[in-house]
Amino acid sequence: MYQFVKYILMLFLASLSLISCKQKQGDKIRVGFSQAMTTDDWRKQMNSSIKIEASLHPEVDLTIKDANNNVAKQIEDIERFISNKVDVIIVSPIQSKPLTAVVEKSIKAGIPVLVVDRKIEGESYTAYLGADNIEIGRIAGRYIISHSKGSGNIIEITGASGSSPAYERTLGFNQIINESKRFKIVNTIQGDWEKESVKAPLKAILLQNPNIEYIFAHNDRMALSAWETAKTLGLEKKIKFIGVDALNSVNGGIELVKSGVLDGTILYPTGGNEALKLALKMYNKESISRNNILNTIVIDKNNAEIIENQMDKVDQQQLVIESQQGAIKVQEREYASQNNLVRLLSFFLVIILSLTIYSIYSTISISKKKKQLERINQTVIDQNNEIQEMAQIAAKSNEAKLNFFTGLSHEFKTPITLIMSYVESLIENEKIKGTALIDEVKLIHKNSNRLLRLINQLLDFRKIEEQKFTLRASNTKIYDFTNEVMANFKGEAARRNIDFQLVCKNKNLELFIDRGLMDKVYFNLLSNAFKFTPDNGKISISIVENQDNTVKIHFKDSGIGIPDDELSNVFDPFFRASNNNKNSSGIGLHLSKEFVLLHQGTIELKSKQGSEFVITLLKGSSHLQPAQITHKVENLTSIPSLITDNLNIEPDLKNSNPISDAEKHSLLIIEDNVDLVNFLKAKLSNEYVVYNSDGSDAIEKALEIIPDIIICDINLVDKDGYEISKELKKDLRSSHIPIIILTAQSNKESVLKGLQSGVDQYLTKPFSLSILKQSLSSLLFNREKLRYYYTNNIYRVEPESKFGNQEQSFITKMNDIIKKNVENPKFSVEDLADKLCVSRVQLYRKVKAIIGINISDHINNVKLEKAAELLKANEMNISEIAYSLGFSSPNYFSTAFKNKFGISPKEYKTSS
């Protein structure tokens, strides 16, 4: 028996060794990637995207070799891949010609090669993936031509010699520029993709010829260097700069466009994830295209913010994926360990079963124990299932509660809007100023603001729960910031005779903080301090700079304090101390802690003769991600509900000369809150003819009225505001109408969804009436500018132009129909409306809104243009032309012709 057991154990150990060996080797697809990106941002972006894609394919063994812009090193790396017999090679060539031979060697060795970003010479590669560099050059040329208003003189700064992107971008750029006689490439600077290669030659050129309108650089780094060089000569505002890459990083293309350094940058995608997908298709011998082109776009000030938000969101999703992949790997290791354990137990079970031959008693005993173990296991499984079901029920219940309170909070914002708007009107009313009522009205306003802050705090709690907060830290003088917040409480301190002090030795101390979030932390801590500190007490804020690169901010009060056994619970949501007999939401301190943690800081509480909260923050910005840092400083005194930042706000002046209804613009308010509708009507009726809809008939009413502008809520009776806006913008009859969304939903997702549905502006409740009025005026002013364009270009509008898509299609189609029927004397406005599939009234209002004249006058203008052509041709006399174009008499035709062209048909014909 002993020998039998020993033999079984030896077989078991051998099998475990074999299993372990197989698990280590596995059937992996080995992919070698020779990286040639020359900048940290490109390298990070490319490597990140290809690694994440590889993490989604456990069968892939990815090896990345970085040549650091060294051609010899890259050739050596590829040679090593070939000698190691990898399955697929991905190459990003530093230069085209030197890499050709080693790529051919790989192909001959039977290893497929995917060339990315830059091509090699010849066709000895399996497939190519990258942006169309010729098209990038063309896009840059088209952008300059379409936006140029100056001299048309251009300087081109190319990439390194021998680089295929540099050659192709120059080729595409020259194709477009050379087609236009007004534009000229004055000089071409041979760069090497880096900043220093630009400065000296560009400075010499600009000193000789400062009359340059555009500089096109083959990447954003050289474009930035060109801007810096121009700045030294005082030419940075005269010259416009175009770059390529559009990286979402500090000093990347998108940031340079937003800051106004670059006029535009062209997105140059890395395509890391697409590269690995193509490599796997090559390995599996699937059918693929030989040339795979990545899409690109121009990024300028109009779309830079949206593209940056999208890239930030992608980065966040990539971080989540990496975190999830890490968790999966941990689970895989645990599974492997448990699998081996199961194998070991199973093998021991075989041994036990073998021993049953020698012992019936042992067999019976083992059988009983096995059944008992199964029953226990089943009991554990049943209990675990019950626990999971209870957890799911609890999670759904909690989610329902949070959704209820969040929705209720959004609903509160509409009545608060009415309260605050009416109170602001009362405060500005000359009859109330100087009376005893003004203090009571200001008290209402103060408490309305307090209620709004509490509602926003509840919404913040929801965002924290869903991890939707993004830190936007800026360099801030912490002493000045603290003073700004303290100013809100100094009146309360004086009224209650509380000693309220700020102590700071270094008043120029700077920290990177999100001013909006840290303002909420300060407000919560100071509100608690004033709430629990008696009259004649003391509250102090001390800012202490430490040697360990940290700053501690102490909030100390002489209040009632917190029991020692409850100190560990104060930051829990909905916690309320046993000695607290005041009303409290219980989430203020929890939010404060979460906001401090977002700054990579800590907050702690000491309670001895009052309470002392201590916030610890790190100096500098190295502890923060680049995406968490902004150079735009938020103004704490600005109106928090406004989503758009670019309005030029004018004071709400009373109009001493009322406008007649005929001169007023028409306004449609789509809102189901009757009080808010009445408020807006009362405030806007002096300037607009106001119509309203509760949302159930919004589209029908908009198409019936064809208003000049629309204000629309999101949460409505039938369709939401997004659907209504999208349908109106798609409909040819209403596409020209500007739409303002006015809603309580202020999160980033809602704003983005609104912009995607085609709205022209997004404002949130509570709103400033003066801002709303200015928004209406600005949008109508922009519509007037568009009308001016169409009026002056009505016969030259082309459908492929990018200016006003829907309106251009309408005008082009309308003009084509009129021109085809211009010699038909029976052709009428009703016929035109029928062919355009709109009613006569809708056609009249649409044409009047776009070009400012009625449709009959427009048809006459087209006929007169045709008459001018016929007079020039000199094939018909004046009477024949008049009757052929449907004019009632030659005299009426002559009068109309002279009114338009200033001379009679006879004089026009003679001069032609």
UniProtKB/TrEMBL annotation:
<protein>
    <recommendedName>
        <fullName>histidine kinase</fullName>
        <ecNumber>2.7.13.3</ecNumber>
    </recommendedName>
</protein>
<keyword id="KW-0812">Transmembrane</keyword>
<dbReference type="InterPro" id="IPR036097">
    <property type="entry name" value="HisK_dim/P_sf"/>
</dbReference>
<feature type="domain" description="HTH araC/xylS-type">
    <location>
        <begin position="812"/>
        <end position="911"/>
    </location>
</feature>
<keyword id="KW-0238">DNA-binding</keyword>
<dbReference type="Pfam" id="PF12833">
    <property type="entry name" value="HTH_18"/>
</dbReference>
<keyword id="KW-1133">Transmembrane helix</keyword>
<keyword id="KW-0175">Coiled coil</keyword>
<dbReference type="InterPro" id="IPR009057">
    <property type="entry name" value="Homeodomain-like_sf"/>
</dbReference>
<dbReference type="InterPro" id="IPR036890">
    <property type="entry name" value="HATPase_C_sf"/>
</dbReference>
<keyword id="KW-0597">Phosphoprotein</keyword>
<keyword id="KW-0472">Membrane</keyword>
<keyword id="KW-0902">Two-component regulatory system</keyword>
<dbReference type="InterPro" id="IPR018060">
    <property type="entry name" value="HTH_AraC"/>
</dbReference>
<dbReference type="GO" id="GO:0005524">
    <property type="term" value="F:ATP binding"/>
</dbReference>
<dbReference type="GO" id="GO:0000155">
    <property type="term" value="F:phosphorelay sensor kinase activity"/>
</dbReference>
<keyword id="KW-0547">Nucleotide-binding</keyword>
<dbReference type="Pfam" id="PF00512">
    <property type="entry name" value="HisKA"/>
</dbReference>
<keyword id="KW-0805">Transcription regulation</keyword>
<dbReference type="InterPro" id="IPR025997">
    <property type="entry name" value="SBP_2_dom"/>
</dbReference>
<dbReference type="InterPro" id="IPR011006">
    <property type="entry name" value="CheY-like_superfamily"/>
</dbReference>
<keyword id="KW-0808">Transferase</keyword>
<feature type="coiled-coil region">
    <location>
        <begin position="366"/>
        <end position="393"/>
    </location>
</feature>
<dbReference type="InterPro" id="IPR001789">
    <property type="entry name" value="Sig_transdc_resp-reg_receiver"/>
</dbReference>
<dbReference type="InterPro" id="IPR018062">
    <property type="entry name" value="HTH_AraC-typ_CS"/>
</dbReference>
<dbReference type="Pfam" id="PF13407">
    <property type="entry name" value="Peripla_BP_4"/>
</dbReference>
<feature type="domain" description="Response regulatory">
    <location>
        <begin position="666"/>
        <end position="780"/>
    </location>
</feature>
<dbReference type="GO" id="GO:0003700">
    <property type="term" value="F:DNA-binding transcription factor activity"/>
</dbReference>
<feature type="modified residue" description="4-aspartylphosphate">
    <location>
        <position position="713"/>
    </location>
</feature>
<dbReference type="Pfam" id="PF00072">
    <property type="entry name" value="Response_reg"/>
</dbReference>
<dbReference type="InterPro" id="IPR020449">
    <property type="entry name" value="Tscrpt_reg_AraC-type_HTH"/>
</dbReference>
<keyword id="KW-0067">ATP-binding</keyword>
<dbReference type="InterPro" id="IPR003661">
    <property type="entry name" value="HisK_dim/P_dom"/>
</dbReference>
<keyword id="KW-0418">Kinase</keyword>
<keyword id="KW-0804">Transcription</keyword>
<dbReference type="InterPro" id="IPR005467">
    <property type="entry name" value="His_kinase_dom"/>
</dbReference>
<dbReference type="Pfam" id="PF02518">
    <property type="entry name" value="HATPase_c"/>
</dbReference>
<feature type="domain" description="Histidine kinase">
    <location>
        <begin position="407"/>
        <end position="621"/>
    </location>
</feature>
<dbReference type="GO" id="GO:0043565">
    <property type="term" value="F:sequence-specific DNA binding"/>
</dbReference>
<feature type="transmembrane region" description="Helical">
    <location>
        <begin position="341"/>
        <end position="361"/>
    </location>
</feature>
<dbReference type="InterPro" id="IPR003594">
    <property type="entry name" value="HATPase_dom"/>
</dbReference>
<dbReference type="InterPro" id="IPR028082">
    <property type="entry name" value="Peripla_BP_I"/>
</dbReference>
